Amino acid sequence: MEKTMVMKILEQKKLKYIPHYYDPIKLDACFVAEVLNQNPNQVFKTLVTVGSKYYVFMIPANKELDLKKAASFLKEKKIEMIKQKDLLPLTGYIHGGCSPVGMKKQFTTVFDKSIIGKEKVCMSGGRVGCQIEVNSNDVIALVRGIIENIIVEE
Q: Has this prediction a pTM greater than 0.90?
């Protein structure tokens, strides 16, 4: 399979990754974790939001972004998910294939604090049907990520 922009960037930065491919019959992060036999707490989904500017959030597949916590942390009055039709023109990625690596512009990227202590995470490889397993510290450093408590508490 042809290399994605994510893979090319990781290789350019000399960062190791493992690609995983799956049949994208469902665009759901928990489904992806299941078909790849991965722990849903280590499969991170990419969520793009808007407040006074755009933000990217990385959270575990089986969790939900707490928009109020996120807005408060970023000192925004309100943050909401962007419209699906705006995703491709803004990021260069489509729904189900969005990665924080290789977006058209580098947005503030926040990882949920649950990433702490995880050596590896799995995230979109930049194409529907492709995930990459990568060192969590490498991807955080690459996108200049911030770590914060941003998920809905159960």
A: yes
Cα(141)–Cα(59) distance, rounded to whole angstroms? 16
Residues 6+ away with beta carbon under 8 Å from 51? 71, 74, 76, 77, 78, 79, 80
**Distance from CA of residue 112 to its chain's centroid?**
10
Closest CA to 46 of 65, 24, 31, 68: 65
Counts for the chain of helices (H) and strands (E), in that order: 5, 8
The residue that leads in pLDDT, 63 or 154, is 63
CB-side exposure of 124: number of CA atoms within 13 Å? 26
| 119 contacts 136 by C-beta, under 8 angstroms | yes
Instruction: Assess contact for 86 and 95: CB atoms under 8 A.
Output: no
| Nearest alpha-carbon partner for 133 in 119, 148, 114, 112 | 119
